């Protein structure tokens, strides 16, 4: 042995590792050489319990494995080394064990970085869930790397995945070596019923018992209609086991006289020909194991029959995985400016790590959800390992539906790059992880890992997964994730059925709400924004392709490592050229969080349930420091059922992106509306939006929505044929869009399809700072803007955000009129005679100056209110956030005695902007009115000044700068001149000094007396007002105006909309009423209310000239 090692030193480095030792496997360097006996038969080894101690490769042992071997378990430690022999012309080597543990200086090598392994090697992990005790820190059926361990696996590195360069049609290429082929079945159980006397096919059916649970009932009904004595031919296409119930298996066993159907496993080829109701001798049957290599032997069943006239005929059924033709259309082109080329991945590598599986689910392995065995192998790496690098490795049948048992799992390993002292930073390169049972790559409490050119295909639960919210500086480069299915481990992994059934960690009798608590399984689950995603593809997820999720505080074993709110304020890493398509909920989702507290009576939901959170990146994750915009550069999102992309929060910029064939291309839900993240905004620029592209898709697969497109062609559809398609969706604000192109948004008789739309059933306020510029609408756009109508999907279309939907066309590139606001047609708080109505949009175009008004009310908090502009008093709006025009007068009324405490916030007012407000009160009210400036972040109040009672309404409203109010006891109206005195910058809704406000306290004398009055708002209309601002005199001459690009510095326009908010509601399900000590303020959640007046009446038009006093004409002239 010593001579062998001495000779090895003189060889090239490439030969050094292969020539380490001549022994096949031995306990020490001097033990001599021998060949390991062949592995025992799998079933016996797999099922036999053994208390054997592990084989140990320890101090002084440097072994080369030259032939296949089976161990109960294997521990490599204390400087021991095990190296796989590399003989490309020799037989493959398989190492079987219940587990392999590498620690304390132990090393396992298959190939090296400079000399990749050239032969075929397999590590096969065996054992059932109940066999033997778990190893502390690792569990069962694993390859584990502990402190001081070395794992170096380097196989050949083929092209991991690429994109088609030509469209592949069902049946194969039109020209080339693929040929069209008739298939008589596809995924699930395929059955043919024949007349034994004539050979004629009497009935046929395909039953997708792999994905659809209801198919078993349909299969049983189909068989119940078939009389005994008929010939049945049955075969599996793709897979049929996952949802095949035990009841169905037993019935098929009895009716078809099948020996194998009861134990049919995942993707196992199976075929049968027999006689319904016949005996076992009348049945021919075959089943094969599934190997996952892309090709297996065929399962073929064949029988001869004799017709009535003596003619013999043969019935053959076959099932198997073979190299064949594609079933669906796969695009290999750039269509309408969007790169829709299909991904093609290679799942095989010459180094394979696999779990050995049972034929079906057993024991406590969540068999109520899975018919197949989910107890696979796993690889787990702990902190302080010496070296871990994997490249050119295939992993299949890995992972378990158990917390912490994943195909590749870095567990609390901390820094694994140069920061952690690793001269060769840790990486996973060119892995093929497929047909696994829990995730693909899990990064837990680990930073600086590189995951490159890795495929994650057909797995349960989040695929590429960051766990606790602390994981940073990891890079995902050119990875492919396909077909991510639901799992059971976390609430976010679960589908609806799992969410409702798994309740062991909720409090009391709480029943989860699947759509909000669960149903979030994602291909990339990114729990901290400081990670890099570059040139990845995520397709076919049950819910989301890429999800940036936020932990308010670190969770799990990372609790306490970061301060509260750090992840939400951490700047985004690199996001560049990623693709998301064919996902159900969204391609890309930025927003939401996880519940970071345990279930309790106060909040009975399970720990880590999906919860609310907002992304607001700042320098050093400090909200007191400057904002750091998050750049989403080069996103491609197409064929996602709901959203191409959704972003909630502040300072997120999409650029150079493409959105096509999504239900909604892009939703920007800015967090910059009062009272949330002051100054934040969202933006999209230099991007393309396509409604219905020339990629029609294929009928079948998991997308069941198939119908007519705008031109009458049949195509895949998002959601269903009536869903209102939108390219760009505005939600809250401020949001801005610049230099974008829209194509092919054309409504049909079944659905609306618009380039620009709004979030439906929106109860929140919308910012008038939303703006667009330099927009190109191609001729194929049939509906530029749509505000919705009552009916399916839109509901009553009567919520505050529905009525107040608004945006500013800065340069006229949408409307043809520069500096124009587009609002809903029935908004009489916005409308004036100069507005132009656009019936197809259900909208109107108006010029003007606008801002927002926010009202906070207490004592009582369960009233509703209405608001009307004085000049349109016959058109009151029942709103939670009404829009008002600046330098106008507005009337506010309540459905009961007015609240004793009211605070008015002028929001998005520029210095000098004003409103006249008339608030209806009982006629014996006594007032105390003050103004101050409230600094939201610090909670400090300054610049407190008192309002004084004026002798007349005119003196209170003349805008001389005096702080005066006037109460008209005859009419019951309190008149206030509301004006901003501080300057506002950019997208901030308040000044830098804070939010100005007026606080009104009204005391009733005697308290509690109600004054019932006639109907508050008479039917007769008020006089028509003169236009406050004239309509545009001419349209913009070109599509591209001289305005800016939509950046912050360019969005300083002269007006905005006013929104009225009401704080408080009677016992909503989500509100908390907080009781405080006498010296503390009461607290309640913000809410907006509908409008109606019942208990007492003020005149419908408080500013009517029928009163003894009126507003002077000078006060109504708008400022220039």
UniProtKB/TrEMBL annotation:
Cellular localization per UniProt: Cell membrane
Keyword Transferase: no
Annotated G8 domain residues: 39-166
Alphabetically ordered keywords of this record: Cell membrane, Glycoprotein, Glycosidase, Hydrolase, Lectin, Membrane
Compositionally biased spans, kind Low complexity: 22-35
InterPro entries reported for this sequence: CEMIP/CEMIP2, CEMIP_beta-hel_dom, CEMIP_X, G8_domain, ILEI/PANDER_dom, Pectin_lyas_fold, Pectin_lyase_fold/virulence
Family (UniProt): Belongs to the CEMIP family.
This protein's name: G8 domain-containing protein
Organism: Anas platyrhynchos (Mallard)
């Amino acid at each position: 042995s010593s001579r062998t090692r001495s000779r090895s030193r003189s060889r090239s480095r490439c030969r050094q590792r292969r020539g380490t030792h001549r022994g096949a496997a031995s306990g020490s360097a001097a033990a001599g050489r021998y060949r390991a006996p062949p592995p025992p038969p799998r079933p016996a080894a797999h099922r036999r319990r053994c208390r054997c101690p592990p084989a140990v490769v320890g101090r002084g042992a440097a072994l080369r494995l030259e032939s296949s071997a089976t161990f109960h378990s294997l521990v490599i430690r204390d400087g021991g080394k095990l190296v796989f022999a590399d003989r490309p012309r020799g037989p493959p080597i398989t190492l079987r064990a219940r587990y392999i543990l590498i620690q304390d200086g132990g090393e396992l090598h298959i190939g090296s970085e400079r000399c990749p392994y050239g032969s075929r090697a397999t590590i096969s992990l065996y054992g059932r869930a109940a066999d033997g005790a778990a190893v502390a820190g690792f569990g069962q059926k694993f390859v584990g790397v502990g402190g001081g361990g070395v794992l170096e696996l380097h196989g050949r590195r083929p092209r991991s995945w690429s994109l088609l360069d030509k469209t592949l049609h069902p049946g194969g290429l039109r020209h080339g070596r693929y040929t069209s082929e008739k298939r008589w079945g596809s995924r699930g159980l395929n059955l043919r019923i024949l007349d034994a006397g004539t050979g004629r096919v009497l009935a046929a059916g395909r039953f997708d018992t792999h994905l659809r649970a209801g198919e078993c009932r349909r299969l049983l009904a189909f068989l119940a209609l078939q009389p005994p004595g008929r010939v049945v031919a049955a075969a599996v296409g793709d897979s049929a086991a996952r949802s095949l119930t035990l009841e169905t298996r037993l019935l098929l066993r009895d009716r078809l006289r099948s020996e194998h159907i009861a134990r049919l496993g995942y993707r196992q080829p199976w075929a049968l020909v027999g006689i319904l109701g016949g005996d076992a001798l009348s049945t021919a049957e075959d089943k094969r194991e599934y190997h996952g290599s892309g090709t297996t032997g065929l399962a073929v069943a064949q029988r001869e029959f004799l017709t009535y006239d003596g003619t013999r005929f043969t019935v053959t059924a076959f099932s198997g995985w073979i190299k064949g033709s594609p079933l669906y259309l796969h695009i290999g082109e750039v269509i309408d400016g969007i790169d829709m080329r299909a991904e093609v991945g290679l799942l095989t590598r010459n180094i394979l790590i696999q779990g050995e599986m049972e034929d079906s689910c057993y024991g406590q392995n969540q068999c109520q959800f899975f018919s197949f065995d989910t107890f696979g192998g796993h690889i787990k790496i702990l902190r302080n390992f010496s070296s871990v690098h994997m490249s050119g490795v295939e992993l299949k049948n890995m992972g378990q539906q158990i917390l912490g048992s994943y195909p590749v799992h870095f567990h609390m390993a901390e820094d694994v790059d140069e920061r952690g002292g690793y001269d060769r930073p840790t990486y996973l390169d060119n892995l093929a992880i497929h047909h696994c049972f829990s995730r693909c790559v899990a990064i837990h409490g680990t930073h600086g890992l590189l995951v490159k050119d890795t495929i994650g295909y057909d797995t349960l639960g989040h695929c590429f997964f960051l766990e606790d919210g602390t994981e940073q500086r990891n890079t995902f480069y050119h990875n492919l994730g396909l077909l991510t299915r639901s799992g059971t481990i976390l609430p976010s992994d679960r589908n609806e059925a799992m969410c409702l059934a798994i309740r062991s960690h909720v409090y009391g009798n709480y029943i989860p709400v699947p759509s909000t608590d669960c149903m979030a399984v994602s291909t990339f689950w990114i729990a901290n924004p400081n990670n890099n995603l570059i040139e990845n593809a995520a397709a076919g997820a049950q819910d989301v392709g890429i999800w940036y999720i936020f932990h308010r505080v670190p969770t799990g074993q990372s609790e306490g490592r970061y301060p509260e709110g750090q992840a939400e304020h951490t700047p985004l890493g690199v996001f560049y050229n990623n693709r998301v398509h064919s996902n159900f909920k969204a391609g890309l989702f930025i927003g939401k969080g996880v519940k970071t507290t345990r279930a309790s009576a106060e909040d009975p939901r399970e720990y880590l349930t999906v919860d609310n959170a907002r992304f607001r990146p700042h320098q050093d994750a400090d909200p007191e420091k400057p904002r750091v915009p998050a750049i989403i550069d080069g996103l491609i999102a197409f064929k996602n059922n709901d959203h191409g992309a959704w972003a909630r929060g502040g300072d997120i910029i999409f650029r150079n992106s493409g959105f096509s064939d999504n239900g909604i291309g892009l939703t920007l839900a800015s967090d910059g509306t009062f009272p949330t993240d002051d100054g934040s905004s969202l933006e999209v620029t230099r991007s393309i939006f396509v409604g219905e592209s020339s990629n029609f898709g294929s009928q079948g697969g998991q997308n069941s929505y198939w119908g007519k497109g705008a031109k009458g062609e049949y195509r895949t559809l998002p959601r269903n044929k009536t869903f209102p398609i939108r390219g760009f969706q505005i939600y809250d604000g401020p949001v801005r869009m610049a230099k974008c192109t829209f194509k092919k948004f054309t409504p049909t008789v079944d659905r609306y399809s618009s380039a620009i739309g709004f979030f439906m059933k929106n109860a929140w306020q919308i910012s008038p700072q939303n703006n667009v510029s330099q927009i190109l609408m191609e001729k194929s756009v049939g509906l530029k803007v749509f505000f919705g109508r009552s009916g399916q999907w839109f509901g009553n279309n009567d919520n505050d955000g529905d009525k107040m939907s608004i945006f500013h066309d800065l340069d006229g590139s949408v409307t043809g009129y520069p500096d124009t606001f587009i609002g809903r047609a029935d908004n009489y708080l916005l409308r004036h005679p100069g507005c132009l109505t656009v019936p197809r949009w259900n909208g109107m175009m108006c010029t003007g100056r606008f801002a927002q008004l926010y009202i906070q009310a207490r004592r009582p908090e369960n009233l509703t209110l209405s608001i009307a502009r004085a000049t349109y008093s016959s058109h009151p709006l029942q709103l939670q956030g009404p829009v008002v025009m600046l330098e106008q007068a507005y009337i506010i009324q309540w459905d009961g005695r007015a609240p004793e405490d009211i605070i008015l916030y002028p929001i998005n007012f520029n210095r000098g902007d004003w409103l006249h407000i008339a608030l209806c009160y009982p006629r014996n009210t006594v007032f105390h009115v003050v103004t101050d400036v409230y600094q939201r972040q610090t909670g400090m109040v300054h610049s407190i000044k008192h309002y004084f009672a004026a002798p007349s309404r005119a003196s209170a409203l003349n805008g001389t700068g005096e702080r005066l109010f006037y109460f008209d006891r005859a009419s019951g109206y309190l008149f206030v001149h509301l004006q901003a005195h501080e300057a506002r910058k950019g997208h901030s809704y308040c000044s830098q000094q804070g939010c100005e406000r007026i606080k009104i306290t009204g005391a009733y004398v005697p308290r509690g007396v109600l004054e019932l009055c006639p109907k508050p708002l008479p039917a007769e209309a008020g006089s028509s007002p003169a236009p406050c601002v004239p309509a545009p005199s001419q349209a913009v001459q070109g599509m591209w105006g001289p305005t800016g690009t939509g950046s912050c510095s360019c969005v300083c326009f002269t007006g905005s909309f006013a929104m009225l908010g009401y704080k408080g509601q009677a016992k909503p399900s989500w509100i908390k009423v907080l009781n405080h000590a006498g010296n503390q303020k009461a607290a309640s959640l913000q809410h907006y209310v509908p409008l109606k007046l019942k208990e007492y009446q003020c005149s419908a038009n408080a500013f009517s000239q029928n009163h003894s006093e009126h507003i002077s004409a000078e006060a109504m002239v708008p400022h220039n």
